[in-house]
Every structure is written in C-alpha cells, then in structure tokens.
Design brief:
Blueprint lengths: L4 H10 L7 E4 L2 H11 L4 E5 L12 E4 L2 H11 L3 E2 L9 E2 L3 E5 L3 E12 L4 E7 L6 H7 L4 E6 L7 H10 L4 H20 L2 E12 L4 E3 L3 E4 L8 H4 L9 H8 L3 E4 L4 E5 L2 H13 L4 E6 L6 H12 L6 E8 L4 H14 L6 E7 L2 H11 L4 E3 L2 H11 L6
Parallel strand pairs: 14-15, 14-16, 16-17, 17-18
Antiparallel strand pairs: 1-6, 2-3, 2-6, 4-5, 7-8, 7-10, 8-9, 10-11, 10-12, 13-15
Helix pairs in contact: 2-3, 5-6, 10-11, 11-12
Bound molecules: guanosine-5'-diphosphate and manganese (II) ion.
Amino acid sequence: MDIHEYQAKEILARFGVPIPRGGLAYSPEQASYRCTEIGGSAWVVKAQVHTGGRGAAGGVRLCHSDRAVEDAANSMFGRRLVTSQSGPRGKLIYRVYVEEATDVARELYFGIVLDRRIERVVIIASAEGGMEIEELARSKPEVLVRTTIDPAAGFLEFQGREIAFALDLQPAQIAEASRIFRCAYRAFRDLDATMLEINPLAVTGKGSIVALDAKMAFDDNALFRHLEISELRDRSQEDARESHAADRGLAYVGLDGDIGCMINGAGLAMATMDMIKVAGGEPANFLDIGGGASPQRVLKAFRAVLQDANVKAMLINIFAGVNRCDWVAEGIVAAFKQLDVKVPVVVRLAGTHVEQGQRILRDSGLPLITADTLAEAAHKAVAAVGAKVG
Ligand code: GDP
Ligand code: MN
C-alpha cells in the first residue's frame, strides 16, 4: 500500500528525520492560510498524489506570495496529474501540501528497498539526487552506493558513516546524516515498509540536512498489525477496478488491453497473458479466482472482469486441481443470467470434473466459444475481440 508524501513525512519526523515546516490544504484558501501559519516569504505547493515525477509535470510549484500559493493550489485542485510514472490516466489532486521553501545547496538520494533476490533489505544512496532513481541507475550506475543490511545485526553505525562519506558530506555533517539514515531505517523496519525513498534528501545553504520529498510503501500482509498505517489508505489514488476486486477478496490486476481474463492461479495467469500476446492480442486485466472457487465466487469474478469498459472479449482459462470445473461452469451460467454479457466469451476448462463442467455449458445453450488448449483459447479470444454477441 502506498501513502502520500505528507503522510510519509509525518512518519519520518516521528522517527527523528528532519522535514521542512508544512501543512495540508483541501482548498486554495486553506493553502494560502498555511503560508501565514508557516511564516517566511517563500513556499512550495506540492500536489499530493500517489506517484513520483510531480516536479516535471507541474505538481510542485515554488511561490513567493500567499496569492501565488493560492493560485498554484487553485490550478492543481480537481486536476488529474499525469507524470512519467503515473500511467496515462494520471492521479486526481484533491489535497496539496504547502511547505516552507528550502534553500537547497545539494540534492542527495536515499532509498531503502527489499532485494528479493538476496533476501535482504538494501539501502541505496547517491550523491546525485533529485532525478528518478531508475534514470540514475541507467545513466550513471557508478554513483549509486548499495549497502546490504544483515537482518540479525540490523543497520550498523559504521554503515551509516560509510554512506555519509560516500555522499561527499562535510565532516561536521557525517554524524547527523548517519543519524538520519538510522532513523529512516527504523521507520522502515518497525512499520513493515517495502520501500522508503527520500529524493531529494537536501543539504541546505546553511549545511543542515532535510528530507524534501518522501515516499513509503507498506507490506499489505502486515497491515493488520499497523492500523494507524492502514487508515492512511487513499482509494482515490488506486485503480478503481483493482480496489473493487480487492474489497471482494479477489486478486485482480488492471492492464491496458481489451481482453478480460478470468484464470485460476497466478502462474497460469502469467502464461495466459503471454499466450494472448503471442496470438497478437492485449489483456485488459486478469483476475485470479484462486482455489476451490464456488459458483458465487466465479460470478463475482465475472462481474469484476466485465466492469472494465475496455473489455471487448473475455477469456476464461481454468486448469482445475483444487477447483472444480462444474462449479466454474455453474458460475458462468449464473453470470449470463444475472449480468448483461455483451462481449464474446471464450472458455477453456481442464482438470477436475471437466466432463460435468462441459456438459453444464453445453446444456445451457449459451453462446460460448469453447477451446481445448490454452493456445486455441488465446487465438479464439483475439479473433473474437469486438464481435457482436446475441
Ligand atoms: P517529485 O518530482 O514527485 O519527486 O517531487 P519532489 O518533492 O522531489 O520535488 C521535485 C523537485 O522540486 C525537487 O527535486 C527539488 O529540486 C524541487 N523542490 C522541492 N521542494 C523544494 C524547495 O523547498 N526548495 C527548492 N529550491 N526546491 C524544491
Ligand atoms: Mn522526489
């Protein structure tokens, strides 16, 4: 689960990381009022959206009067901010964060991620921050410093100092920087985060160090023990298709093509996505019905897949082990009764109770397109895209 920048900053501040003074606003008037509260003569207005790359997309604006802050906020509210990372639909701006402007001398990069390959938490830092880490990794991999954390020993003092030295900090800043790294690491560890990024971590003109931007993501499977974090969920920033399915206990991934997919198991889903592409099509989404799915669950899944207006054909690929083809077939028949199915539906069933399942589909008289293999199903689905039904 992702959270907003201001929320990540609040968390980091609680753990001892210095952040600029700032306040949240839900309207342009509130934004300009924040200037009075914060004081000073320059402010930064920052769109709060779950995506990076806001700066380059007009989502971060430096202002020199409260009027300018109000105008900047006014131009942001209600807009969908499209950035290099947000996807083409962008993310709705309905709150902005107003911060005192920082006199930035240097921009550093600091990030903590989970390296699944080596099964360790890894800290990535760079003396050149500000730009996106992916871009940095591509153009200048040599400026990235990687530090692996041993889970038994935790983040050690000397590692903090080593990172600070690698960032070319002044001797007087080394202790403060390594303290900040430790605080950030504690926040990451204590809250079961999967990602923490401070980019830029700024060195100010006066030489102090402050987190100018902050991003955190959390392990969904650990949210049950961090209620204060799960409360930070913001549905307006999620793919509506995915939150609809997640609320119903379905594993759903939204994509950009036009073939909706209902499959059992993530591995079979991957293979099906590949096969659709080989057949020349593009999946719109895939939904994993999981194991032992009841007809009711199949019906729910059917509804979730069809909710995506981009779906022009549907592919159901079930390789039943724990599942039962007859239950899946009953779910499909129920879906046709209860939903207004306007797109062609290709069904491939295999495994447990396959004969019963196929008989139910045949006896139903529904205009289904059946297939015996995955390859055949994928080709038929691609060919059926956009075809009229009924
Ligand atoms: P992102 O583009 O979504 O990563 O948003 P950031 O919060 O990182 O802001 C983008 C850029 O705006 C930063 O890299 C800074 O260069 C600049 N910026 C943000 N806040 C300030 C500030 O207070 N003072 C100055 N001078 N620049 C800032
Ligand atoms: Mn940033």
